[in-house]
Task: structure prediction
Amino acid sequence: MIGAMIPSLNWLRIFEAAARHQSFARAGKELNMSAAAVSQQILALETHLGRPLFLRTANRIRLTPEGADFLPTIQLSLGAIESKAGALFAREGIERVTLFASQLMAMSWLPRVLAEFEQTNPNIRVDLVIEGSMRVIKPDLSILFGEDPHLVRHPARLMGMSHVVMCRRIDLSKITDLNMLLSYKLYDVAAHAIGWSVLLSQNLGPIPRRQLRLEPVDTTPLALVMVAQGLGLAIGHLPVCGPLAETLDLAVCPLVPRTPGPGHYYLEHSRDKPPRRAALKLEAALHAAAQAAMQP
Result:
């Protein structure tokens, strides 16, 4: 039985970097460590937990189901620790910007964008507040989502979305026809603008709802984690879910074409105060990153 406490919290930071990069070498470069040192620390964590977190081959690593399930908790926990530490012990001269975003944004598309922004702007720190958080705070900048068609012309529109079916990369060759797809459990997020029945019928013809093995889940990140464990398929939204899907070694199922759907992300500044220079710089960086992500 493992102890109640993980002996080194640094193991968790190293695990998160290795999982995000899908590479011990790239994680080591980020953390100023050798690939061998990263591998050694990961092995120590795996030994303590009693389960492997990565599957290792000659040329690559990928998360085990347990590792994929562990990763979102680690990312949220590390983010919360860093945000709190920054708020309590901010260095003089550091300007802080509070950004509000959905869970999917915060766990998938935003981490790399914010890391690059802070590296380019060393005097600015972004405090990320996730939708559903108990923190009562008025953010400087919010990434909001809406389904109204007029949002395509919103002056602060960030990106639209394409609906796709996400599966494990190793299952791509198995899903060759509709019958094979329908043999899988289909994770269904009630908040999605387009659900399984509409997505499949629109692309593959009418399908009685009773033929769908629907399994309700609360959020898209949870649905993608379940897919990574080989338990079914999920609807994903590109480009926002792309980085998380990559981390979980998921792929787009080509049987169902990418389907543009209702829904747009857009930015909104706080209405209670004029936007600060740091918030405007973050807004520009988010727009530039979104434009790059929307390129084919």
